[in-house]
Protein backbone atom coordinates (compact mmCIF):
# COMPACT_ATOMS: atom_id res chain seq x y z
CA UNK A 1 0.00 0.00 0.00
CA UNK A 2 2.86 2.34 -0.97
CA UNK A 3 0.94 5.55 -1.77
CA UNK A 4 -2.23 4.89 0.17
CA UNK A 5 -3.46 7.24 2.85
CA UNK A 6 -5.61 6.09 5.74
CA UNK A 7 -7.80 8.16 8.00
CA UNK A 8 -9.73 6.78 10.93
CA UNK A 9 -12.67 8.23 12.83
CA UNK A 10 -15.01 6.74 15.42
CA UNK A 11 -17.31 5.26 12.79
CA UNK A 12 -15.06 3.62 10.23
CA UNK A 13 -11.67 3.46 8.56
CA UNK A 14 -11.29 5.08 5.13
CA UNK A 15 -8.68 3.85 2.66
CA UNK A 16 -7.76 5.67 -0.56
CA UNK A 17 -6.77 3.64 -3.64
CA UNK A 18 -6.41 4.23 -7.34
CA UNK A 19 -8.47 1.11 -8.09
CA UNK A 20 -10.52 -1.21 -5.90
CA UNK A 21 -11.25 -4.66 -7.35
CA UNK A 22 -14.03 -6.69 -5.75
CA UNK A 23 -13.36 -10.43 -6.03
CA UNK A 24 -10.14 -12.42 -6.47
CA UNK A 25 -11.41 -14.52 -9.39
CA UNK A 26 -9.90 -14.68 -12.86
CA UNK A 27 -11.32 -11.36 -14.08
CA UNK A 28 -10.36 -9.51 -10.92
CA UNK A 29 -6.82 -10.91 -10.84
CA UNK A 30 -6.09 -10.19 -14.51
CA UNK A 31 -7.47 -6.65 -14.15
CA UNK A 32 -5.53 -5.92 -10.98
CA UNK A 33 -2.26 -7.33 -12.34
CA UNK A 34 -2.61 -5.17 -15.46
CA UNK A 35 -3.26 -2.01 -13.43
CA UNK A 36 -0.57 -2.73 -10.83
CA UNK A 37 1.98 -3.31 -13.59
CA UNK A 38 1.22 0.21 -14.80
CA UNK A 39 2.27 1.58 -11.41
CA UNK A 40 -1.10 2.27 -9.82
CA UNK A 41 -2.17 1.28 -6.31
CA UNK A 42 -4.68 -1.56 -6.46
CA UNK A 43 -6.41 -3.57 -3.77
CA UNK A 44 -8.54 -6.68 -4.20
CA UNK A 45 -11.32 -7.17 -1.68
CA UNK A 46 -11.95 -10.89 -1.22
CA UNK A 47 -14.71 -12.17 1.05
CA UNK A 48 -13.00 -15.52 1.70
CA UNK A 49 -10.06 -16.10 4.03
CA UNK A 50 -6.65 -16.54 2.42
CA UNK A 51 -6.85 -20.32 2.83
CA UNK A 52 -10.06 -20.53 0.76
CA UNK A 53 -9.49 -17.81 -1.85
CA UNK A 54 -9.51 -19.25 -5.36
CA UNK A 55 -11.60 -22.26 -4.29
CA UNK A 56 -14.76 -22.10 -6.38
CA UNK A 57 -17.16 -24.49 -8.08
CA UNK A 58 -15.95 -25.08 -11.63
CA UNK A 59 -15.89 -27.80 -14.25
CA UNK A 60 -12.08 -27.41 -14.25
CA UNK A 61 -11.83 -27.43 -18.07
CA UNK A 62 -9.52 -24.73 -19.41
CA UNK A 63 -9.45 -23.94 -23.12
CA UNK A 64 -6.85 -21.90 -24.98
CA UNK A 65 -4.50 -21.10 -22.09
CA UNK A 66 -1.62 -20.68 -24.55
CA UNK A 67 -3.31 -17.56 -25.88
CA UNK A 68 -4.26 -15.99 -22.53
CA UNK A 69 -3.15 -12.40 -21.86
CA UNK A 70 0.51 -12.49 -20.90
CA UNK A 71 0.04 -10.16 -17.92
CA UNK A 72 0.04 -13.46 -16.00
CA UNK A 73 2.53 -15.72 -17.81
CA UNK A 74 1.37 -19.20 -18.73
CA UNK A 75 4.31 -20.59 -16.78
CA UNK A 76 2.62 -19.29 -13.62
CA UNK A 77 -0.50 -21.32 -14.43
CA UNK A 78 0.96 -24.59 -15.71
CA UNK A 79 1.50 -26.20 -12.28
CA UNK A 80 -2.29 -26.21 -11.92
CA UNK A 81 -2.73 -28.21 -15.16
CA UNK A 82 -3.47 -31.79 -14.10
CA UNK A 83 -4.48 -33.31 -17.46
CA UNK A 84 -3.22 -31.97 -20.78
CA UNK A 85 -4.14 -35.09 -22.76
CA UNK A 86 -7.80 -34.14 -23.24
CA UNK A 87 -8.52 -33.24 -26.84
CA UNK A 88 -12.21 -33.91 -27.52
CA UNK A 89 -15.68 -34.00 -26.09
CA UNK A 90 -17.67 -37.18 -25.60
CA UNK A 91 -21.40 -36.48 -25.84
CA UNK A 92 -23.37 -39.40 -24.42
CA UNK A 93 -26.95 -39.65 -25.65
CA UNK A 94 -28.72 -42.45 -23.74
CA UNK A 95 -32.03 -41.74 -25.49
CA UNK A 96 -30.39 -42.80 -28.76
CA UNK A 97 -27.94 -45.31 -27.24
CA UNK A 98 -25.26 -43.24 -28.94
CA UNK A 99 -21.95 -41.55 -28.17
CA UNK A 100 -20.87 -38.59 -30.28
CA UNK A 101 -17.15 -37.73 -30.35
CA UNK A 102 -16.71 -33.98 -30.77
CA UNK A 103 -13.29 -32.46 -31.54
CA UNK A 104 -12.49 -29.37 -29.48
CA UNK A 105 -10.40 -26.73 -31.26
CA UNK A 106 -7.37 -25.18 -29.61
CA UNK A 107 -5.33 -26.09 -26.56
CA UNK A 108 -7.29 -27.82 -23.82
CA UNK A 109 -6.50 -28.90 -20.27
CA UNK A 110 -8.27 -29.97 -17.12
CA UNK A 111 -7.01 -28.13 -14.06
CA UNK A 112 -7.09 -28.12 -10.30
CA UNK A 113 -9.22 -24.99 -9.96
CA UNK A 114 -8.15 -24.33 -6.39
CA UNK A 115 -4.47 -24.46 -7.35
CA UNK A 116 -5.17 -22.31 -10.41
CA UNK A 117 -6.93 -19.76 -8.19
CA UNK A 118 -4.00 -19.69 -5.79
CA UNK A 119 -1.56 -19.16 -8.64
CA UNK A 120 -3.37 -16.21 -10.23
CA UNK A 121 -3.65 -14.60 -6.79
CA UNK A 122 0.10 -15.03 -6.27
CA UNK A 123 0.78 -13.57 -9.72
CA UNK A 124 -1.26 -10.43 -9.08
CA UNK A 125 0.36 -9.86 -5.68
CA UNK A 126 3.77 -10.22 -7.31
CA UNK A 127 2.68 -7.47 -9.72
CA UNK A 128 2.07 -5.20 -6.72
CA UNK A 129 -1.60 -5.75 -5.86
CA UNK A 130 -2.68 -5.75 -2.20
CA UNK A 131 -5.34 -8.27 -1.19
CA UNK A 132 -7.65 -7.79 1.78
CA UNK A 133 -9.14 -11.16 2.71
CA UNK A 134 -12.17 -11.67 4.97
CA UNK A 135 -13.61 -8.49 3.47
CA UNK A 136 -17.30 -8.39 2.57
CA UNK A 137 -18.53 -5.50 0.42
CA UNK A 138 -21.87 -4.17 1.67
CA UNK A 139 -22.53 -1.08 -0.45
CA UNK A 140 -21.28 1.14 -3.27
CA UNK A 141 -20.45 4.84 -2.91
CA UNK A 142 -21.43 7.33 -5.64
CA UNK A 143 -21.03 11.09 -5.93
CA UNK A 144 -23.77 13.58 -6.81
CA UNK A 145 -23.19 12.99 -10.55
CA UNK A 146 -23.58 9.22 -10.21
CA UNK A 147 -19.90 8.33 -10.59
CA UNK A 148 -18.84 5.38 -8.46
CA UNK A 149 -16.19 6.55 -6.01
CA UNK A 150 -15.70 3.50 -3.80
CA UNK A 151 -17.34 0.79 -1.73
CA UNK A 152 -18.34 0.15 1.87
CA UNK A 153 -17.15 -3.09 3.40
CA UNK A 154 -16.71 -5.09 6.58
CA UNK A 155 -13.17 -6.34 7.13
CA UNK A 156 -12.47 -8.64 10.04
CA UNK A 157 -15.67 -7.38 11.62
CA UNK A 158 -14.82 -3.67 11.26
CA UNK A 159 -16.60 -1.16 9.00
CA UNK A 160 -14.35 0.21 6.29
CA UNK A 161 -14.72 2.60 3.35
CA UNK A 162 -12.54 2.04 0.28
CA UNK A 163 -12.37 5.19 -1.85
CA UNK A 164 -11.13 4.73 -5.43
CA UNK A 165 -10.88 6.39 -8.81
CA UNK A 166 -12.34 3.22 -10.38
CA UNK A 167 -14.10 0.17 -8.93
CA UNK A 168 -13.83 -3.15 -10.79
CA UNK A 169 -16.73 -5.53 -10.21
CA UNK A 170 -15.38 -9.07 -10.31
CA UNK A 171 -17.89 -10.27 -7.73
CA UNK A 172 -19.45 -13.04 -9.80
CA UNK A 173 -22.71 -13.72 -11.59
CA UNK A 174 -25.01 -12.53 -8.81
CA UNK A 175 -22.91 -9.48 -7.93
CA UNK A 176 -24.23 -7.49 -4.99
CA UNK A 177 -22.62 -4.37 -6.42
CA UNK A 178 -25.00 -4.23 -9.35
CA UNK A 179 -27.93 -4.22 -6.93
CA UNK A 180 -26.43 -1.21 -5.16
CA UNK A 181 -25.28 1.05 -8.02
CA UNK A 182 -27.66 3.63 -9.46
CA UNK A 183 -27.05 3.16 -13.19
CA UNK A 184 -29.56 5.81 -14.31
CA UNK A 185 -26.79 8.07 -15.64
CA UNK A 186 -25.27 5.44 -17.95
CA UNK A 187 -26.15 2.64 -20.38
CA UNK A 188 -24.89 -0.15 -18.08
CA UNK A 189 -26.94 -3.28 -18.79
CA UNK A 190 -29.62 -3.81 -16.14
CA UNK A 191 -31.79 -6.14 -18.24
CA UNK A 192 -30.73 -9.19 -16.23
CA UNK A 193 -33.00 -11.74 -14.52
CA UNK A 194 -32.36 -14.79 -12.34
CA UNK A 195 -33.66 -17.03 -15.14
CA UNK A 196 -30.59 -15.97 -17.17
CA UNK A 197 -28.38 -17.96 -14.80
CA UNK A 198 -27.61 -21.59 -14.21
CA UNK A 199 -26.76 -23.31 -10.98
CA UNK A 200 -23.76 -25.60 -11.02
CA UNK A 201 -22.89 -28.31 -8.52
CA UNK A 202 -19.77 -30.42 -8.66
CA UNK A 203 -17.91 -33.10 -6.74
CA UNK A 204 -14.29 -34.22 -6.99
CA UNK A 205 -14.47 -38.03 -7.11
CA UNK A 206 -11.62 -40.53 -6.78
CA UNK A 207 -11.93 -43.92 -8.48
CA UNK A 208 -9.77 -47.01 -8.04
CA UNK A 209 -9.10 -47.78 -11.71
CA UNK A 210 -8.23 -45.34 -14.53
CA UNK A 211 -11.27 -44.34 -16.58
CA UNK A 212 -11.22 -45.27 -20.27
CA UNK A 213 -12.14 -41.74 -21.34
CA UNK A 214 -9.34 -39.83 -19.58
CA UNK A 215 -8.65 -37.92 -22.82
CA UNK A 216 -12.21 -36.60 -23.15
CA UNK A 217 -14.67 -34.16 -21.59
CA UNK A 218 -17.82 -36.22 -21.08
CA UNK A 219 -21.21 -34.46 -21.39
CA UNK A 220 -24.59 -36.10 -20.91
CA UNK A 221 -28.06 -34.53 -20.98
CA UNK A 222 -30.32 -34.97 -17.97
CA UNK A 223 -33.87 -36.21 -18.31
CA UNK A 224 -34.94 -32.57 -18.72
CA UNK A 225 -33.57 -30.33 -21.46
CA UNK A 226 -32.71 -27.60 -18.98
CA UNK A 227 -29.84 -29.61 -17.47
CA UNK A 228 -26.70 -31.57 -18.28
CA UNK A 229 -24.16 -33.73 -16.48
CA UNK A 230 -20.41 -33.58 -16.92
CA UNK A 231 -17.47 -35.87 -16.17
CA UNK A 232 -14.14 -34.09 -16.61
CA UNK A 233 -10.99 -36.12 -15.76
CA UNK A 234 -8.46 -34.13 -13.75
CA UNK A 235 -6.36 -37.28 -13.90
CA UNK A 236 -7.12 -40.87 -14.88
CA UNK A 237 -8.50 -41.51 -11.38
CA UNK A 238 -9.64 -38.06 -10.16
CA UNK A 239 -12.81 -36.88 -11.87
CA UNK A 240 -14.69 -33.60 -11.64
CA UNK A 241 -18.33 -34.70 -11.85
CA UNK A 242 -21.05 -32.10 -11.99
CA UNK A 243 -24.43 -30.83 -12.98
CA UNK A 244 -25.59 -27.59 -14.54
CA UNK A 245 -29.22 -26.47 -14.80
CA UNK A 246 -31.23 -23.31 -15.41
CA UNK A 247 -32.38 -21.57 -12.24
CA UNK A 248 -35.96 -21.84 -13.47
CA UNK A 249 -35.78 -25.61 -12.83
CA UNK A 250 -36.17 -27.53 -9.58
CA UNK A 251 -32.61 -28.23 -8.37
CA UNK A 252 -33.17 -31.28 -6.19
CA UNK A 253 -34.80 -33.32 -8.96
CA UNK A 254 -31.84 -32.61 -11.23
CA UNK A 255 -29.28 -33.40 -8.52
CA UNK A 256 -30.99 -36.76 -8.23
CA UNK A 257 -30.22 -37.28 -11.93
CA UNK A 258 -26.50 -36.89 -11.15
CA UNK A 259 -26.67 -39.20 -8.15
CA UNK A 260 -28.52 -41.86 -10.13
CA UNK A 261 -26.11 -41.64 -13.05
CA UNK A 262 -23.09 -42.02 -10.77
CA UNK A 263 -24.64 -45.09 -9.16
CA UNK A 264 -25.25 -46.68 -12.56
CA UNK A 265 -21.76 -46.13 -14.03
CA UNK A 266 -19.42 -49.04 -13.41
CA UNK A 267 -16.32 -46.84 -13.24
CA UNK A 268 -17.67 -45.06 -10.15
CA UNK A 269 -18.45 -48.11 -8.05
CA UNK A 270 -16.68 -47.76 -4.71
CA UNK A 271 -15.56 -44.20 -5.51
CA UNK A 272 -14.85 -41.64 -2.79
CA UNK A 273 -15.81 -37.98 -2.81
CA UNK A 274 -13.11 -35.43 -1.96
CA UNK A 275 -14.89 -32.10 -2.30
CA UNK A 276 -18.42 -30.75 -2.92
CA UNK A 277 -19.22 -27.22 -4.05
CA UNK A 278 -21.92 -25.24 -5.86
CA UNK A 279 -22.19 -21.88 -7.59
CA UNK A 280 -24.21 -19.80 -10.04
CA UNK A 281 -23.04 -18.90 -13.55
CA UNK A 282 -24.53 -16.79 -16.34
CA UNK A 283 -25.90 -18.60 -19.38
CA UNK A 284 -26.87 -15.46 -21.24
CA UNK A 285 -25.49 -12.99 -23.71
CA UNK A 286 -22.74 -10.68 -22.40
CA UNK A 287 -23.89 -7.42 -20.84
CA UNK A 288 -24.74 -4.92 -23.58
CA UNK A 289 -22.56 -2.50 -21.64
CA UNK A 290 -20.41 -3.30 -18.62
CA UNK A 291 -19.16 0.23 -17.88
CA UNK A 292 -20.44 3.18 -15.84
CA UNK A 293 -18.54 6.27 -14.72
CA UNK A 294 -15.90 4.99 -12.29
CA UNK A 295 -17.08 1.38 -12.57
CA UNK A 296 -16.33 -1.65 -14.78
CA UNK A 297 -17.69 -5.21 -14.53
CA UNK A 298 -15.63 -8.22 -15.64
CA UNK A 299 -16.05 -11.98 -16.00
CA UNK A 300 -19.19 -13.61 -14.64
CA UNK A 301 -20.36 -10.22 -13.32
CA UNK A 302 -20.64 -9.08 -16.96
CA UNK A 303 -21.94 -12.32 -18.50
CA UNK A 304 -18.57 -13.28 -19.99
CA UNK A 305 -19.31 -17.02 -20.12
CA UNK A 306 -19.84 -19.27 -23.14
CA UNK A 307 -23.60 -19.85 -22.70
CA UNK A 308 -23.56 -23.30 -24.32
CA UNK A 309 -20.55 -24.82 -22.53
CA UNK A 310 -20.44 -22.78 -19.31
CA UNK A 311 -16.74 -22.06 -19.90
CA UNK A 312 -15.82 -18.74 -18.32
CA UNK A 313 -12.12 -18.72 -17.43
CA UNK A 314 -10.84 -17.52 -20.81
CA UNK A 315 -13.48 -14.81 -21.18
CA UNK A 316 -12.78 -13.54 -17.68
CA UNK A 317 -9.01 -13.45 -18.30
CA UNK A 318 -9.35 -11.37 -21.43
CA UNK A 319 -12.05 -9.15 -19.96
CA UNK A 320 -9.86 -8.48 -16.93
CA UNK A 321 -6.86 -7.55 -19.08
CA UNK A 322 -8.95 -5.36 -21.42
CA UNK A 323 -10.61 -3.65 -18.45
CA UNK A 324 -7.25 -3.06 -16.77
CA UNK A 325 -5.76 -1.51 -19.89
CA UNK A 326 -8.73 0.80 -20.40
CA UNK A 327 -8.77 1.83 -16.74
CA UNK A 328 -5.08 2.73 -16.94
CA UNK A 329 -5.80 4.91 -19.97
CA UNK A 330 -8.76 6.55 -18.20
CA UNK A 331 -6.75 7.36 -15.07
CA UNK A 332 -3.88 8.67 -17.20
CA UNK A 333 -6.36 10.99 -18.90
CA UNK A 334 -7.98 11.93 -15.56
CA UNK A 335 -11.31 10.96 -17.10
CA UNK A 336 -13.12 7.82 -15.93
CA UNK A 337 -16.36 8.64 -17.74
CA UNK A 338 -18.48 6.12 -19.58
CA UNK A 339 -17.23 7.50 -22.90
CA UNK A 340 -13.57 6.82 -22.07
CA UNK A 341 -14.23 3.39 -20.54
CA UNK A 342 -16.40 2.38 -23.52
CA UNK A 343 -13.49 1.01 -25.53
CA UNK A 344 -13.45 -1.93 -23.08
CA UNK A 345 -16.96 -2.90 -24.25
CA UNK A 346 -15.86 -2.76 -27.87
CA UNK A 347 -12.87 -5.04 -27.30
CA UNK A 348 -14.96 -7.61 -25.46
CA UNK A 349 -17.61 -7.70 -28.18
CA UNK A 350 -14.99 -7.90 -30.92
CA UNK A 351 -13.07 -10.74 -29.26
CA UNK A 352 -15.75 -13.06 -27.86
CA UNK A 353 -18.92 -11.15 -26.94
CA UNK A 354 -20.51 -11.36 -30.39
CA UNK A 355 -19.80 -15.08 -30.56
CA UNK A 356 -21.29 -15.69 -27.11
CA UNK A 357 -24.42 -13.73 -28.04
CA UNK A 358 -24.90 -15.90 -31.13
CA UNK A 359 -24.41 -19.05 -29.04
CA UNK A 360 -27.14 -17.85 -26.69
CA UNK A 361 -29.59 -18.33 -29.57
CA UNK A 362 -29.04 -22.09 -29.27
CA UNK A 363 -29.75 -21.89 -25.54
CA UNK A 364 -33.08 -20.29 -26.43
CA UNK A 365 -33.78 -23.14 -28.86
CA UNK A 366 -32.93 -25.83 -26.29
CA UNK A 367 -35.30 -24.36 -23.71
CA UNK A 368 -38.18 -24.63 -26.17
CA UNK A 369 -37.29 -27.92 -27.91
CA UNK A 370 -38.48 -31.43 -27.19
CA UNK A 371 -35.55 -33.20 -25.56
CA UNK A 372 -35.96 -36.53 -27.38
CA UNK A 373 -36.22 -34.84 -30.77
CA UNK A 374 -33.24 -32.62 -30.07
CA UNK A 375 -30.94 -35.39 -28.82
CA UNK A 376 -31.99 -37.62 -31.71
CA UNK A 377 -31.06 -34.92 -34.15
CA UNK A 378 -27.73 -34.19 -32.44
CA UNK A 379 -26.86 -37.87 -32.65
CA UNK A 380 -27.22 -37.61 -36.44
CA UNK A 381 -25.02 -34.53 -36.82
CA UNK A 382 -21.32 -34.59 -37.81
CA UNK A 383 -19.24 -34.14 -34.67
CA UNK A 384 -16.84 -31.62 -36.20
CA UNK A 385 -19.68 -29.35 -37.32
CA UNK A 386 -21.33 -29.57 -33.93
CA UNK A 387 -18.00 -28.56 -32.39
CA UNK A 388 -17.73 -25.63 -34.78
CA UNK A 389 -21.20 -24.43 -33.78
CA UNK A 390 -20.52 -24.83 -30.05
CA UNK A 391 -17.36 -22.75 -30.09
CA UNK A 392 -17.83 -20.26 -32.92
CA UNK A 393 -21.57 -19.62 -32.80
CA UNK A 394 -22.03 -20.90 -36.36
CA UNK A 395 -20.97 -23.68 -38.71
CA UNK A 396 -20.60 -24.09 -42.46
CA UNK A 397 -22.15 -27.30 -43.76
CA UNK A 398 -21.70 -28.40 -47.37
CA UNK A 399 -24.40 -30.08 -49.44
CA UNK A 400 -22.91 -33.56 -49.01
CA UNK A 401 -23.06 -33.29 -45.24
CA UNK A 402 -26.52 -31.75 -45.43
CA UNK A 403 -27.79 -34.75 -47.36
CA UNK A 404 -26.08 -37.21 -45.00
CA UNK A 405 -27.59 -35.47 -41.99
CA UNK A 406 -30.99 -35.41 -43.65
CA UNK A 407 -30.81 -39.16 -44.22
CA UNK A 408 -29.64 -39.97 -40.68
CA UNK A 409 -32.20 -37.69 -39.02
CA UNK A 410 -35.31 -39.38 -40.37
CA UNK A 411 -38.11 -38.85 -37.88
CA UNK A 412 -36.65 -35.55 -36.66
CA UNK A 413 -37.06 -33.46 -39.78
CA UNK A 414 -39.27 -30.83 -38.13
CA UNK A 415 -36.60 -30.28 -35.49
CA UNK A 416 -33.90 -30.26 -38.18
CA UNK A 417 -35.81 -27.59 -40.08
CA UNK A 418 -36.10 -25.52 -36.91
CA UNK A 419 -32.41 -25.97 -36.16
CA UNK A 420 -31.44 -24.92 -39.69
CA UNK A 421 -33.61 -21.79 -39.46
CA UNK A 422 -32.23 -21.07 -35.98
CA UNK A 423 -28.69 -21.23 -37.38
CA UNK A 424 -29.68 -18.52 -39.85
CA UNK A 425 -31.02 -16.37 -37.04
CA UNK A 426 -27.80 -16.89 -35.06
CA UNK A 427 -25.76 -15.86 -38.11
CA UNK A 428 -27.85 -12.68 -38.46
CA UNK A 429 -27.31 -11.85 -34.81
CA UNK A 430 -23.57 -12.51 -35.06
CA UNK A 431 -23.34 -10.11 -37.99
CA UNK A 432 -25.24 -7.45 -36.05
CA UNK A 433 -22.91 -7.72 -33.06
CA UNK A 434 -20.05 -6.96 -35.42
CA UNK A 435 -21.62 -3.48 -35.76
CA UNK A 436 -21.49 -2.83 -32.01
CA UNK A 437 -21.38 0.97 -31.53
CA UNK A 438 -18.20 2.92 -30.87
CA UNK A 439 -19.79 5.12 -28.20
CA UNK A 440 -22.70 4.99 -25.72
CA UNK A 441 -24.69 7.33 -27.97
CA UNK A 442 -25.20 4.58 -30.54
CA UNK A 443 -26.26 1.83 -28.14
CA UNK A 444 -30.02 2.43 -28.03
CA UNK A 445 -30.43 2.23 -31.82
CA UNK A 446 -28.18 -0.84 -31.96
CA UNK A 447 -30.25 -2.51 -29.22
CA UNK A 448 -33.51 -1.86 -31.09
CA UNK A 449 -32.18 -3.63 -34.18
CA UNK A 450 -30.79 -6.48 -32.04
CA UNK A 451 -34.13 -6.94 -30.31
CA UNK A 452 -35.90 -7.15 -33.67
CA UNK A 453 -33.51 -9.96 -34.61
CA UNK A 454 -34.30 -11.70 -31.32
CA UNK A 455 -38.02 -11.46 -32.05
CA UNK A 456 -37.28 -13.52 -35.16
CA UNK A 457 -35.39 -16.02 -32.99
CA UNK A 458 -38.39 -16.44 -30.69
CA UNK A 459 -40.70 -16.85 -33.68
CA UNK A 460 -38.42 -19.50 -35.23
CA UNK A 461 -37.84 -21.51 -32.04
CA UNK A 462 -41.25 -21.09 -30.44
CA UNK A 463 -39.50 -20.03 -27.23
CA UNK A 464 -40.82 -17.47 -24.79
CA UNK A 465 -38.85 -14.20 -24.83
CA UNK A 466 -35.74 -14.54 -22.71
CA UNK A 467 -34.93 -10.85 -22.27
TrEMBL record:
GO molecular function, one term: oxidoreductase activity, acting on the CH-CH group of donors, NAD or NADP as acceptor
Protein origin, superkingdom: Archaea
Gene3D superfamilies per the UniProt record, alphabetical: FAD/NAD(P)-binding domain
Pfam entry (one): FAD_binding_3
Domain FAD-binding: 18-345
Name assigned to this protein: Dehydrogenase (Flavoprotein)
The organism of origin for this protein: Natrarchaeobaculum sulfurireducens
Amino acid sequence: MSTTEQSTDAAATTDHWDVVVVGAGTGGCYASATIANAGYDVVILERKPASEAGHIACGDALKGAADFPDVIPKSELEPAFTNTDVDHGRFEIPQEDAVLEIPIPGELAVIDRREYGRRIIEATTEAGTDIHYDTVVTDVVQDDDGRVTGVEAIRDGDARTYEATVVVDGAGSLSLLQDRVDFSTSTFDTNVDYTHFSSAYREIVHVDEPVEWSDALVIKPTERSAGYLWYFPRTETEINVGLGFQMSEEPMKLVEDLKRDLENRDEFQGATVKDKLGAALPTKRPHDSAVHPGYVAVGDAAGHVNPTTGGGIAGAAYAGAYAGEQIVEAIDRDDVSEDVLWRYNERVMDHFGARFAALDVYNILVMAADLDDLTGLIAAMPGDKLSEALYSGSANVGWKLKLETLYKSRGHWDTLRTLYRTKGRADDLLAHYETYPSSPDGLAAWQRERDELLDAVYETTGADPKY
